[in-house]
Design a protein that fits this description.
Number of helices of chain A: 12
CATH class of the largest domain in chain A: Alpha Beta
Largest sheet of chain B: 8 strands, mixed
Number of domains of chain B: 1
CATH superfamily of the largest domain in chain A: Thiamin diphosphate (ThDP)-binding fold, Pyr/PP domains
Shape of chain B: globular
Structural class of chain B: alpha/beta
Distance between the termini of chain B: 48 Å
Strand order of the largest sheet of chain B: 2-1-3-4-6-5-8-7
Helix content of chain A: 25-40%
Strand content of chain A: 15-25%
Distance between the termini of chain A: 56 Å
Oligomer: heterodimer
CATH topology of the largest domain in chain A: Rossmann fold
Number of helices of chain B: 9
CATH architecture of chain B: 3-Layer(aba) Sandwich
C-alpha cells in the first residue's frame, strides 16, 4: 500500500520522526521557533504510550531527559539558542556519563535573545564546543522537511547505538516551512535500542566497553545496581583520578563517535561530478544553493553542491576530496563564517575558500550565492572572524 | 531489621567526609529507614547533586545518580516518570538545593511527584571550602562573608510547604532515631516528601565561628531545637548555630506538613490512558 502524501511542517516532521523512532519521553520548555515540537509531542506522545512533561527551564528539561533515559526510555528535548545555551551543562553530563538522548536545536538569530522569529545558523560552533572539556559531539543538519523526519529518527538510532547525546540542528525556516512529504513506514518498535548488558548484575561494569568502544547500558530498576556520575570515572562508574584511566575513557568517548557512518552518510552531493566550483552549504541554505547552481549552469558555469548532513564530526575527508577537484569552494551559511573556517582547515590550501555569509535574520538568497560563485574571490558579504 | 551494611558499597570506603562531620549520621538514618520501610534494594534509586552530602549515593548500593549541581530534582523527575515503580530519593544540600537548584526543588514540590528529598543543611558550602550559603545565619563568618553574613537565611521547610510539598519535616543529626522515623514516614508518603536535616560542618563553619568540637556542635543542636508536630510556624529561618551575640528562637522539628494531593506520576498515567482511549 502506498503511503499518503501529506503537507507537513518541519517541526511536526521532527515530532513524527521522534515518535517513529520510539521516543517515549519528552521534556521541554517553550521557546520560539521550536515550540511546535513540544506542542506536537504533548498531543501525540501520551497516545503512543509516552510521557510529556513541561519543565521549569531548559536545564531541567535535559536533566529530566537524562533521568528518563537512565530509566530505559528513548528520550528527547527541543529548544532554540537561549535554551541551547542553558542545556550545555547537561549535554556535557550526557556525554560524560554516556547517556543516550536527542537534543533538537532550532536555530534563531543570536547572540542572546537575538531574533526569536528569524532563521540563523549561528549555533554550529556552540553545538561542537558549547560545553566545557574535551567532549564528543554528534550533530546532524537536515535540509528539508522530509529530512527533518529522517534525521530525527536517525538521531535516536545514533544516540542509542553510540550511547551519547545527539544534536539535530536546523533553522527557523525549516522549522516552519511546509512541504509535501511521504513519510516511510515507521520501523516496528522504533529504531534499534541501546545494547544492554549480557552479563549478570554482579559482573556488570557500566563503563567497560565492548570491542567497538561502546559500553552496554542497563536500565535503572532492572536489577543492575550501578553508579552514574559526571566526575571522571573508571569502568565501574566510580570516581577516579588515575591519569591512565581518565585518558583511556576520554579517548574512547571521542573515538566511538566515528561509528556514526554505520547509520548516516556524512555528506550529500549534487552535480558535483564535473564541477569547477563547489558550494558547501547545509540546512535551508543548501536549498538556495541548489537554485543558484541551476542558474549558474544555465549560464555555463559548472557548479556543484557539497552538503554536510553531519556537521560534527566535520566531514574533513569529503570536503578535502571535493576541494582537490575544483578551482574554488564557496561556503554559504547564515552566520559570520563558522563553517568557513572548518572548510579552510579541511581544504588546507587546495583551493580558495570564498565565504558567502549573512547573519541579519534573513535567509541567504540564490542570487547572493550566485554572486559569490561568479566572483570566485572574497567580496561582498564575507566571513568576519579574524 | 536487617543489617544496613548490605546497602553500602564497602569497596568505595573510606568515604570523603571530614572527621566530625555529622552527614554520616544522617546517611545511617536514611539506610535504616529504607530497611524499615522494606524497600527492595533493586527498586531504590538515589539521585544527588553536587556537594558533600551529594557524594553519599556513591557509597550506597542502589541505582545511584550523582548528577549536576542543584539539578537532582529534575533528573529524579525524569527517572520517576520513566520508572514509576522505583522509589526515587533525592539527596541534596543547602547550597545545592536552595541556591543553584532552588528552582528545580520548588517545581518538583509543586508537581507533587512521588520523590523523597532529603536536604542536608549544614549552613555552609563545605565541598568548596566554607563559603556563604543561602542558609548561613546572619552574622555567620564564612570565607566569602569574612565580616559576618548580611543576608537573611532561607527557611527550607516553609519554602517547600509554600511550593506544594505534601510532606514536610525537619530533623537534626543529634536525634538519629527520630530522624529515621521522619525519613521512613517521608518514604511511605505518596507525593513529594521533603525532609530538611540540620547537620554540622565543624571543619569550616564550626571552626570559623568558634562553635567548638563536633560533639559540642551536636549538643548545640539539642539546645537550639524543639519538637513540634503538624505545625509550621517558625517565625524565621532555622538557625542552629547563631552568631554568639544573636539569640534566635528555637528551631521547630518534626512533621510540619502532611496532606494528600494528586500525585504527578499517576496523573501522567491517567493522561496516557485517556489519550489512548481517545485514540482507540
Amino acid at each position: 500500500m502506498t503511503r499518503p502524501a501529506q503537507l507537513l511542517q518541519g517541526n511536526a516532521a521532527c515530532a513524527a520522526g521522534a515518535i517513529a523512532a520510539g521516543c517515549r519521553f519528552y521534556a521541554g520548555y517553550p521557546i520560539t521557533p521550536s515550540s511546535e515540537i513540544a506542542e506536537e509531542m504533548a498531543r501525540r506522545l501520551p497516545a503512543a504510550g509516552g510521557v510529556f512533561v513541561q519543565m521549569e527551564d531548559e536545564i531541567a528539561s535535559l536533566a529530566a531527559v537524562i533521568g528518563a533515559s537512565l530509566g530505559g526510555l528513548r528520550a528527547m528535548t527541543a529548544t532554540s539558542g537561549p535554551g541551547f545555551s542553558l542545556m550545555q551543562e547537561h549535554i556535557g553530563f550526557a556525554a560524560m556519563a554516556e547517556v543516550p538522548c536527542v537534543i533538537v536545536n532550532v536555530m534563531r538569530g543570536g547572540p542572546s535573545t537575538g531574533l526569536p522569529t528569524s532563521p540563523a545558523q549561528g549555533d554550529v560552533m556552540q553545538a561542537r564546543w558549547g560545553t566545557h572539556g574535551d567532549v564528543p559531539s554528534l550533530v546532524l543538519a537536515p535540509a528539508s522537511v522530509a529530512e527533518v523526519y529522517d534525521h530525527t529518527l536517525k538521531a535516536f538510532a545514533l544516540a542509542e547505538r553510540l550511547r551519547t547525546p545527539v544534536v539535530v540542528l536546523y533553522d527557523e525556516v525549516l522549522a516552519h516551512m511546509r512541504e509535501e512529504v511521504v513519510l516511510p513506514e515507521p520501523p516496528p518498535g522504533g529504531v534499534p535500542g541501546r545494547r544492554r548488558p549480557a552479563v549478570p548484575p554482579p559482573a556488570y561494569r557500566p563503563y567497560a566497553p565492548d570491542p567497538d568502544g561502546v559500553p552496554p547500558l542497563a536500565d535503572f530498576g532492572s536489577g543492575y545496581r550501578f553508579h552514574v556520575t559526571g566526575l571522571a570515572h573508571d569502568e565501574g562508574g566510580f570516581p577516579t583520578q588515575d591519569p591512565a584511566t581518565i585518558a583511556a575513557h576520554q579517548r574512547r568517548r571521542l573515538a566511538k563517535v566515528a561509528l556514526f557512518r554505520e547509520i548516516i552518510s556524512p555528506v550529500d552531493t549534487w552535480r558535483l561530478e564535473d564541477a569547477e566550483v563547489a558550494v558547501v552549504a547545509y540546512g535551508i541554505v543548501a536549498r538556495a544553493a541548489q537554485e543558484a547552481i541551476e542558474e549558474a549552469r544555465a549560464r555555463g558555469l559548472r557548479v556543484g553542491l557539497l552538503r554536510p548532513a553531519v556537521l560534527w564530526p566535520f566531514p574533513d575527508r569529503e570536503v578535502a576530496e571535493a576541494a582537490r577537484a575544483v578551482r574554488a569552494v564557496v561556503v554559504a551559511e547564515m552566520n559570520l563564517g563558522q563553517v568557513v573556517r572548518e572548510v579552510e582547515r579541511a581544504v588546507a590550501g587546495a583551493a580558495p575558500v570564498i565565504p558567502c555569509c549573512r547573519a541579519d535574520g534573513h535567509p541567504i538568497t540564490p542570487e547572493e550565492i550566485l554572486e559569490a560563485v561568479a566572483a570566485r574571490e572574497p567580496a561582498g558579504r564575507t566571513a568576519s572572524y579574524g | 531489621m536487617g543489617d544496613v551494611r548490605r546497602f553500602l558499597r564497602l569497596p568505595q570506603m573510606p568515604h570523603v567526609l571530614c572527621p566530625g562531620c555529622s552527614h554520616g549520621i544522617v546517611a545511617g538514618a536514611l539506610l535504616r529507614a529504607i530497611d524499615r520501610v522494606g524497600l527492595p534494594q533493586d527498586r531504590v534509586a538515589v539521585v544527588a547533586g553536587i556537594g558533600c552530602s551529594s557524594r553519599l549515593p556513591g557509597m550506597m548500593d542502589f541505582c545511584t545518580l550523582h548528577a549536576t549541581h542543584g539539578r537532582a530534582p529534575a533528573f529524579a523527575t525524569g527517572l520517576k516518570l520513566a520508572r514509576p515503580e522505583l522509589t526515587v530519593i533525592v539527596i541534596t544540600g543547602d547550597g545545592d538545593g536552595l541556591a543553584i537548584g532552588g528552582n528545580h526543588l520548588i517545581h518538583a514540590a509543586r508537581r507533587n511527584i512521588d520523590v523523597t528529598c532529603l536536604l542536608f543543611n549544614n549552613e555552609v558550602y563545605g565541598m568548596t571550602g566554607g563559603q556563604l550559603a543561602p542558609t548561613t545565619p546572619e552574622g555567620g563568618v564564612t570565607t566569602t562573608s569574612p565580616f559576618g553574613n548580611i543576608e537573611p537565611a532561607f527557611d527550607a521547610c516553609r519554602l517547600l510547604a509554600a511550593a506544594g510539598a505534601t510532606f514536610v519535616a525537619r530533623g537534626v543529626a543529634y536525634e538519629p532515631v527520630v530522624l529515621e522515623d521522619l525519613i521512613a514516614r517521608g518514604l511511605s508518603h505518596k507525593g513529594f516528601s521533603f525532609i530538611e536535616v540540620l547537620t554540622d560542618c565543624p571543619e569550616y563553619y564550626g571552626r570559623y565561628n568558634r562553635l567548638g568540637s563536633p560533639t559540642a556542635m551536636l549538643a548545640l543542636q539539642k539546645r537550639s531545637s524543639r519538637d513540634i508536630d503538624a505545625r509550621l510556624h517558625s517565625p524565621r529561618a532555622p538557625v542552629l548555630h547563631p552568631a554568639p551575640t544573636r539569640p534566635v528562637p528555637a528551631v521547630d522539628l518534626g512533621v510540619l506538613v502532611q496532606v494528600e494531593r494528586p500525585e504527578f506520576t499517576e496523573r501522567t498515567r491517567r493522561v496516557m490512558a485517556h489519550a489512548r482511549g481517545a485514540a482507540g
